[in-house]
Design a protein that fits this description.
317 residues; alpha+beta; Alpha-lytic protease prodomain-like; four-stranded mixed beta sheet
Length: 317
């Protein structure tokens, strides 16, 4: 028996529209930033600017995939996929993380080759202005995406917002490095900044991949588990019900919660079902994110014996 959270359909549709608009906006701005940074690289020949442009290439590819993932994740379940497509959000975040790591490797290899063959830099002032403008625009976009991701509980938007914000900090770091080169005349500041950018985005990409892997492996956050059990303690005490066997996971949008409820053997099935339904509804209403609760009804007097026999024979209860 399962009970979904009571989230108004109109609110869900509005959240989906907002998310789709945000991702399309991110893609358009990403393409504009890419052209600006590539132009700045050809103007200056700077390794630091190349590193920023390489990250923008990754961003455009990753956002294009994220737009598809967002569309797929909101599609309804079909006979071949009973649980829908929400978990594509984890794959999308992992793909973006992998692309970031690939960009970091490209930056390191290219920068090393340029340094070995001699550093040639031109018109750094013009390049710095273009990169600074890109950094400011990305910072505003990242802030907007992060706010929307928290409001919509969207892992896809969260991953994109963090990538955009990382990109903006990268741009600011590149501008600082170019300023050092222009002030001191010491050209090695340029490749050193590029290496710093590579390390920074490598860390960001690794974190996204780890977050993706935890979601795909049904990681259960201890903090969320503590919240669920605290609410179950209160609700079960009020309804006069006992529980055990709590399990939960996230799809990237919703919490999926399973719990076994214990009723006296003499209680009518209809009464037990009514109490279980009340618990499901009250538990979902109290969660900070949308949730779906599935309950399994058991007899209080012999549930331990049934579970022991199930473990011994391998039969499901």
């Amino acid at each position: 028996m399962a009970s979904p959270s009571k989230v108004p359909l109109g609110k869900i549709e509005q959240q989906n529209r907002d998310a789709r608009f945000a991702m399309r906006l991110s893609l358009v701005i990403g393409v504009i930033m890419l052209f600006g940074k590539v132009a700045a690289y050809f103007i200056t020949g700077s390794s630091a600017i190349f590193s920023d442009a390489a990250e923008s290439v990754v961003h455009v590819v990753a956002v294009a995939f994220a737009v598809f993932s967002l569309w797929l994740s909101t599609r309804p379940a079909v006979p071949e996929f009973h649980y829908g497509f929400e978990r594509i959000t984890f794959f999308s975040a992992g793909f973006e993380g992998a692309m970031i790591v690939l960009a970091a490797g490209s930056i390191i290899v290219t920068t090393t080759q340029k340094w070995r063959h001699g550093l040639t830099l031109d018109r750094l002032g013009s390049g710095a202005v273009l990169i600074l403008a890109a950094g400011v625009l990305n910072a505003l976009l990242g802030w907007y995406l992060l706010r929307l991701s928290k409001r919509n509980h969207s892992l896809i938007l969260e991953a994109d917002s963090k990538h955009v914000l990382t990109d903006s900090w990268t741009s600011f770091g590149v501008v600082a490095g170019l300023r050092l080169v222009m002030t001191t005349g010491w050209k090695p500041f340029d490749p050193l900044v590029a290496y710093a950018v590579a390390v920074n985005i490598l860390w960001s990409g690794g974190r996204l991949m780890w977050h993706s892997m935890k979601g795909l492996l049904d990681y259960s956050d201890p903090g969320i588990g503590h919240e669920i059990r605290n609410r179950l303690d209160v609700i079960c005490d009020e309804l006069g019900v006992q529980y055990h066997g709590v399990r939960f996971r996230t799809t990237g949008y919703r919490q999926i919660i399973e719990v076994h409820l214990l009723f006296p053997h003499s209680m009518a099935l209809g009464d037990a079902h009514r109490l279980a339904t009340m618990l499901e509804e009250r538990l979902t209403m109290g969660m900070d994110v949308p949730a779906e609760v599935t309950t399994h009804l058991e007899s209080l007097e012999d549930h331990s014996e049934v579970h022991r026999l199930q473990h011994y024979t391998g039969r499901p209860d």
